[in-house]
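Attaching the record inline, Q. Sequence:
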Amino acid sequence: RHTVISIHFGGGASASYNAKNTVSAFCFKPKDPKHLVARCHLCFQCKLGVLLLFVSPIEVVKTLTVKGKAPVDPECTAKLGKAHVYCEGDDIYNVMLNQTNLQFNNNKYYLIQLLEEDNARNYSVWMRWGRVGKSGQHSLISCSGDLTKAKDIFTKKFLEKTKNEWDKRASFQKAAGKYDLLHLDYKAKNAVRLFEAAAKKIVSRPKAVSQLDLRVQALIELICSIQMMEEMVIEMKYDTRKAPLGKLTAEQIQAGYWSLQKVEAYIKWSQTGSAWLEACNEFYTRIPHDFGLKTPPPIKTLNEVQEKAQLLEALSEIRIGIKHVQGEQLDLKHPLDQSYRSLDCELQPLEKTSDVFQVLERYLLSTHAPTHKDYTMTLVEAFRVNKKKSEAIFRFDLPNRMLLWHGSRLGNWAGILSQGLRVAPPEAPVTGYMFGKGIYFADMSSKSANYCFATREKDVGFLLLSEVALGECNELLEANPEAKKLLIRKHSTKGLGKLAPAGCISLHGATVPMGPAKPTGVVNPNGYTLNYNEFVVYDPRQVRMKYLLKVRFNFTQLW
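Structure, as predicted:
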């Protein structure tokens, strides 16, 4: 299949892009390009700016007009290509509201936009509302040249739906029974200016050729795929239409964490009454989910709290990843090279015949836990990781440095490589953290590989090997969410397991455990004994990423 993007600028400029993100045709003659229409046959990330391109295997289903800082709603066909969202300085008259009420099976949105025509000072207010996942109903109110009237309609509707004043939205407070405001990120540079600059550069530039090793190109293309990130969170029921990944703010995610923390507290206290239900409503309102026509399910168990916390963690990593991947700087580099550079993390492929590759492969295969029988793993590629910022702050003064495993979902890696491994924020629920909020590692490869959440359909994942300065470990036989407080003159927590790698070697000063796994003799007299060791540090300075392994999961047959 051949993917082609056609970008049409006002005034007759156009450009076509093929599947390799290179310009295949270009014509430029606008005096003042004012808008852009992007069409695609497959999901595609345009590297010239931040665009939302809609997927269609046969024909174009949506066009998105990008003018200024917010796109006109594609459902407003009467104004597409003719108007733009009105802005006054930093005030952008565009809001997406959300409300979830589990008691009444409500999971709905309300969109309000004040539109200004391109060629005349005529204004209108566009509103669309309905159930998540549906186009819903709409209203377009014409105000002719009366901007004051249009603003009045916009602000009154905002007040009616939220019980908050438009001018005071910076201190927005969710009102009971009313819609919540989704905070969208409008800090990206003006789209018109971006595309004018891009167009001028495209005129004379040669075809961009990536300077990266082909193996690194494949890696960047995989972990920086916006489509992959969207598919990942959609599987977790997140609604990317109401809150596009590239627009979700850190504040919105933080608000989701606070709501989830409330839900967690009510469940722990066995108080599953109206207050608990309202906390569930608040979470779904702040972090939009798409359950179709089904009633959004209340969050009833701590396992469900953990699942939602994993969603928020993924959204946090993706927000960081997209910020770096989409970068605003336009130059002559290949898009993959720009994405790679933005990660600020050197990735050097290892030759499969090298001694280090052989050691990593042996470590991977020999520490596959005997209870993880659903799959085997094949090492496809290995990359040496060098992040200078981590090197500069690493705790070289601590002894007992080990090379340990960490696994994560595919969509999280752009964020991890750009920022390093981090401890969960204070607002995150404690549920799911066996030894409190920290950075978790394993000496059994498959224990970490389970956190890649690979499937038969999506059978490629990544495992990170980090050098972890454990120092003196506080050894525990059972879970303790307050483990960090027990670190008196110690530097890490080690949960003792029944099985552990029997041997070890040294690699560049770090201990590398080697299988096979053998019984340790550890028994918890008070109850459940961990199957395998857990290693936890609470300070990111005790971690430096060393190797990233691309792994294929070979799932066993069901029959």
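Residues 1-65, 188-205 have pLDDT under 50 and may be disordered. The longest strand covers residues 543-555.

More tomorrow.
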